[in-house]
Amino acid sequence: MTDKLKVGVFKFTGCAGCQMELLHLEAELPQIANAVDITYWMMVKRENQWGPWDMALVEGSVSTPREIKEIKEVRARSKVLVALGDCAVGGCLPTIRNWIPQIEAERKVYEDPSVILSTEIHGLDEYVPVDIYLRGCPPNREMFLDTVKSAMLGVRPALRRHCVCVECKLNENACLITEKHRPCMGPVTNAGCGALCPSLDRECEGCYGPMSSPNAAALADVFRELRLTDQEIGRRFRKYAGTSPEFRPEADKA
Amino acid sequence: MNAKSFTVDYVSRVEGQGALDVVLSRGGEVKEVRLRIFEPPKFFEAFLIGRGYEEVMELTGRICGICPVAHQTTALRAVENAMGVQISQKTRDLRKLFALSAIMQSHTLSMYFLSLPDLMGYESSLAMLNDHPEIVKRGLRIKKLANDLTDLIGGRAVHPVTAKLKAFTSLPSRSKMNEIRKRLEDSRAEAQETVDLFAGLEIPKFERRCEHVALSSQDEYAINEGRIRSTDGLDIKEDEYRSHFDEEQVPYSMAKHSTLRSESFMVGPLPRVNINFDQLSPAARKAARSSGFKVPTFNPFASHIARAIELVHAVDECIDIIDRLPYGEEDRSVVPRPGDGFAVTEAPRGMLYHSYTINRTGLVDRADIVPPTAHNAKNVESDLWRFLPQIIDLPLKEITLKCEMLIRAYDPCISCSVHFLRVKIDTVKCG
């Protein structure tokens, strides 16, 4: 390859966990650094260039006017925009506060809210078109690796949209819902984690957000049969992707 | 006179979004130093209200992608303290192993990837790969080992999933533990090489006596529990935190400034090594002496060598814990009970405080979180006030780099620093 792909890594409103997931590719990092040209990554580099990029990996949601302006700039300078992780995909946990009136949330945290510039929390595609969504809090590092390899080959990465249950079956786990009567979000949650929590005797909490066309209402009925209150059910949907169209109706009931 | 006022718009090679403003007079006198955190707030304190007691660690762990383990453990202990839940020695040991793995990971990231490029004259660790592949790859190997250990105990390194109230949901098999124990044994040499590497690098000669604060215990190198002690004689329990530590509002930053007796103070690896030197493993103490480290050291740039010393200790203590860990299932049942709970731990970057009120229905009524970077924020500025006159005759490029190096020596975690504050912000134009 004569011209290396120019890649930028950006942090918006988030926890840096997705960037950490990239840094946790210790065995592959030297090869990645050799195969692509990382021209912007504030957390790792002191000399950074403001585009143009073949691929922009953006971690974090958009929550201030400065970030709205910035995500548009990054989009304009990038061929492919990747939403890296749940915050960039749809806002993740901090969207829980979208149900609290903004002024109330600000008053709870700041004595003088008049100078707070925060907007509601949104994923990147509220403001700009996104090409690739890497779901998860955090997305599995292998998914990121696939995406970079695909970009180098000029093809779309094969990202699965089925539910966690499929991975649970592949792991030959006993079903937490039918066998142990525990409220597991697996049936509506996007795969990619390898059914991590159910394999470790913990219910899926839904941290990869909704799968393609989930039946959230049906799972809420199952939870009701397991004697969860409407509030408890609502809290489960109002967590990692409460404002998504798939989960919103159930999340509204909390 | 080369000096003039300057701004670093976005400090690189730290976690999160912060800037530095320095205002100097014509004569080169320091007029203003502002570490300006512009990371947007996420309002965790607001949206934690009304969530379930069992969700607290899952939610607050997400405050930070570098130290989720520290936030999870602190949240778990604060909720357990609120509800009167007792934990077994096994859970205590596992949580220590979990925390040490995260400290190894975070310290290696800070030493090899965030700060080493400055000390060796490169813009990044990636840029060092050609000239010093063996050093960068050693850093990557230690980091991978640390992550694999967190993965093994927590299910995954970023936002782990197995740590719950009272116990872990699942434990690694004995054979997996033995495998990683072997790798820890092998890494002892690389931890020592890390001490040698940093002992051999020149750091700025700078010393400012300030109060160092860390958890401390007679019986162990305190990480997850202990009394809060300082180099100036503070010695209190964790639930007395709020009667000694205050927060100060600053007009230009999203992060509040924590104070002790109205003064800035320092937390982190250097205060820990200074205060708890006798509890370090014999190999760590030996490594410290061979590096020329003297207790107490008040040069903030010595934080790098303190991290390396802690790395040696962490490897030793991880092996000790693995050797004594019992296997088998543990009871995880918890009866929610209303109450106030407080917990202080040592995150990789220093003292971390969580406190919650759980109500009669098991929901959170109040959340109060103060992370290490809020504890250190004012002290970074106090250091810069003293450090700047010492370097003021250097070219501006050098002054800027040296100031950034001082900030990086604290390894600030800015995402952590903006979630908990009750800040009164005035509209002041910074420049």
How would you describe what is shown here?
Chain A is of the alpha/beta class. Chain A folds into two domains: 5-153, Rossmann fold; 164-251, no CATH class. Chain A has helices at 17-23, 29-35, 65-76, 86-90, 102-109, 141-153, 164-170, 196-199, 216-225, 230-237, 248-251, and strands at residues 5-11, 36-41, 53-59, 78-84, 132-134. Chain A is globular and about 55 Å long. Chain B has 431 residues and is of the alpha+beta class. Chain B has a single domain (44-417), classed as Cytochrome-c3 Hydrogenase, chain B (Orthogonal Bundle), CATH 1.10.645. Helices cover 43% and strands 15% of the residues of chain B. Chain B has 13 helices and twelve strands. Chain B has helices at residues 44-48, 56-60, 68-83, 89-120, 125-128, 133-154, 174-199, 269-275, 282-291, 303-324, 372-391, 396-409, 414-417; strands spanning 6-8, 18-24, 30-37, 211-216, 227-230, 235-236, 245-248, 257-260, 265-266, 339-347, 350-358, 364-370. In chain B, strands 6-5-4-9 form a four-stranded mixed beta sheet. In chain B, strands 1-2-3 form a three-stranded antiparallel beta sheet, covered by helices on one side. A three-stranded antiparallel beta sheet of chain B has the order 10-11-12. In chain B, strand 2 (18-24) and strand 3 (30-37) form a beta hairpin. The model of chain B is unreliable at 420-431 (pLDDT under 50).
- Unreliable stretches of chain B (pLDDT < 50, length at least 5) are 420-431
Q: Assembly type of the shown chains?
A: heterodimer
- Total strand segments of chain B: 12
Shape of chain B: globular
**Could you tell me how far the N terminus lies from the C terminus of chain B, measured between alpha carbons in angstroms?**
21 Å
- Outline type of chain A: globular
**Which protein chains are joined by the largest interface, and how many residues does each one contribute?**
A-B, 61 and 70 residues
